Amino acid sequence: MRIDIITVLPELLKSPFEASIMKRSIEKGLVEVYMHNLRDYTDKSYNQVDDYQFGGGAGMVLMIEPIDKCISHLLAERTYDQVIYMSPDGHTLDQKMANSLSLVENIIILCGHYKGVDQRVRDAYITKEISVGDYVLSGGELAAAILCDSIIRLIPGVLNNETSALTDTFQDNLLAPPVYTRPSEYKGMKVPDVLLSGNFPKIEKWREEEAYKRTEELRPDLLKK
After folding, report:
1. N or C: which end of the chain has fewer CB within 10 A?
2. What is the pTM assigned to this prediction?
3. Which structural domain range is residue 123 located in?
């Protein structure tokens, strides 16, 4: 998979890709991630990429020209399955969406900033708009990092135990059951006996029941799906 991220603040995105699972996935050659500084695609003085919005109003808007140049440059080099815009207007990211995007080959992620991007960019290029929640961030960079993490960890070979991702919370519209590790007793708090029994069919049944119970208590909306 190749991910191209268009941003005015590439420095915000460096750290997430230089540690842990995302770093290892890049080092293994399972995913390529490239940052494109939008300011490299403008001929305005002081590398300007934003301007006041027509009709007045507070907040600057990312201009169409540098975004058009950057996306056009990328599209001339290869075919992309999705051109994604990180926006609070978009469909809320969920596990089903992450699963689907983990199967594609090439995606572009455009990070909004300030008051957003010129609507003509969205009309001409964007194939999918994604939100990470009903709140507003200063820019789309952190949201893009969240999206990338949710996708990359699902790519075969990224996790040491590939079945781990299949049992994550939300994979079957259920929250994950409680998990425990050693010691089996700590300050009077004990691990459920069933998990120490070695009876794996019984353990699996317990996990299913606990997952349903936890979902019913904490996220009953998921059960409606």
Report:
1. C
2. 0.90
3. 2-152
